[in-house]
């Protein structure tokens, strides 16, 4: 599981507002020291951290699995977020479109209606939890108080 990705951004508040409104991200308040250093957001069980720079240099893209495809496209349209023409993948019936955040970081929105199987070949249901899993600090680790 990927714990976090890091993106270059030029404006913390603009980025936070965009990710919250467009993708439903949750702001992670990590205390004054970390909050001063970077913006941290959570989408599902993954985190997006940021590096503040006056001239961001986006590279590549990352993809987010979308639970309700029609709702996501309606949200993009309502918020007037430019996006590529959605496509349907012939091999799976899945959907895909691309958007860019305010600093030009490319995000692929996908929906894979394929399902999952465990190592025994049994179908596994994945519970959709918008808050996802969260990391918890184990006792005995971390700063000494």
TrEMBL record:
Question: Any coiled-coil ranges, and where?
Answer: none
InterPro entries registered for this protein in UniProt: Glyas_Bleomycin-R_OHBP_Dase, Glyas_Fos-R_dOase_dom, GlyoxalaseI/FosfomycinResist, VOC_core
Q: Give all residue intervals belonging to the VOC domain.
A: 1-112
Q: Which SUPFAM superfamilies match?
A: Glyoxalase/Bleomycin resistance protein/Dihydroxybiphenyl dioxygenase
Q: PANTHER family this protein is in?
A: GLYOXALASE DOMAIN-CONTAINING PROTEIN 5 (PTHR21366:SF14), GLYOXALASE FAMILY PROTEIN (PTHR21366)
Family affiliation: Belongs to the glyoxalase I family.
What this protein is called in its record is Glyoxalase domain-containing protein 5
């Amino acid at each position: 599981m990927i714990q976090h990705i890091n993106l270059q951004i030029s404006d913390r508040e603009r980025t936070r507002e965009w990710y919250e409104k467009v993708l439903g991200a949750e702001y992670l308040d990590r205390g004054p020291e970390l909050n001063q250093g970077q913006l941290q957001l959570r989408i599902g069980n993954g985190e997006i951290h940021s590096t503040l720079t006056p001239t961001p240099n986006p590279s590549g893209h990352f993809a987010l699995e979308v639970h309700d495809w029609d709702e996501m496209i309606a949200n993009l349209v309502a918020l007037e977020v430019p996006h590529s023409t959605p496509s349907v993948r012939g091999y799976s019936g899945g959907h895909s479109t691309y958007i860019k955040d305010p600093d030009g970081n490319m995000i692929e929105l996908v929906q894979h209606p394929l399902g999952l199987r465990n190592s025994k070949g049994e179908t596994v249901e994945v519970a959709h939890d918008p808050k996802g899993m969260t990391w918890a600090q184990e006792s005995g680790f971390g700063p000494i108080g």
